[in-house]
Amino acid sequence: MADKEKLKDKEEQTQNGMGKKIFNFLKGMPFSFILLSLTVLGCIAGSIVPQNQPLHVYYDSYGASKGNMILSLSLNRVFTSWWFILITALLCFNLILCSISRIKGVVRAWKSTGRLSVWGSWVTHLGFLLLIISFAVSQVTSRELELYGIPGSTQSLGNSGLSVTIDSFDVELRDDFTVEQYTAGLTVTDEKGEYLKGTASVNHPFKAFGYKFYQDSTGWATYVDIYKDGKAVKTDLLCAGEYTYPEDLRSLVLMFSYLYPDFDISEEQGYFSKTPLLKNPIYLYGIYYDGALIKVDTAAPGELIQVHGYAFRMYGPCQYTLIVAKSDPYAWIVGISSLVLVSGLFLSFYVKPWEDKRRKENA
Q1: Which of 48, 59, 109, 185 is the most exposed place for a label (fewest CB within 10 A)?
Q2: Side-chain half-sphere exposure of 105, counting CA atoms within 13 A
Q3: Which one, of 335, 360, 352, 359, lies nearest residue 116 by Cα?
């Protein structure tokens, strides 16, 4: 009987020892290092592979086998993939265990020595934990919407309930025709009819109704008239890369490919633009019929393009602006978390050496 009790006690001690080893591993630095390494690898993959693109982009760019691998491993959406979320959750769990298990020792050391630097490592861990959690909350609650248009156009901003009017768009050029700044004048109106006016330029967003409006990029746009039997039947506004067609013959398509604002041609360069100024604009376009490309050519503004009993006329070239609107209501939490992290690093790498030096001087 005594032998059985001893054997039972030994098994319990073995189980307790194994549980303690697992617990120590989960809260320890080796596990933290593994998780941080996996996180870094995931971030590298997310930086190399384009994120959240249509599926065909991965097959076109990487081929069938690599494209399938990217999609199966969720490398096309790394930061919302199940494995990245799992790694992040385990890292948070590790930091929580580490912080809880060390808090008594830190408090005891602080009371006995009175040194603030003993909090350095603990506060750093806490800041890192808060930073991960706040970043995750920000990713879930933030929104990013896009719109583009020419001056004078008004568009709704997704399902935000806001509408945006592009009042103006200016491109400031240097003497060598490189761009100094892009600036868009905007009017943002909410559902109640209240509005705010401002300008958005590169690195200087316009803030309105909880959104930041960024000037993102630009390109050329043009008006297109479609004629049938000499009568105008349709007018469209196209940006480069867009297309239009007659409503009664949708298989006939005109694609606006590109605009050379100051057109010229040479044997070395082929078609090119001498300057970005609108001095001698020429359109490059393509005509498709039943999905097949039947013509690629150039045309001057106002020139009629005759095909299959229809005529297309492009005119009024102008620049459009792409505006990106971002909303992140909990960005301030990320800021506070970063401040906590920096405070911990400050205690560890500045206050601790200062306290050590002062202690030696007093001794």
Answers
A1: 48
A2: 8
A3: 352
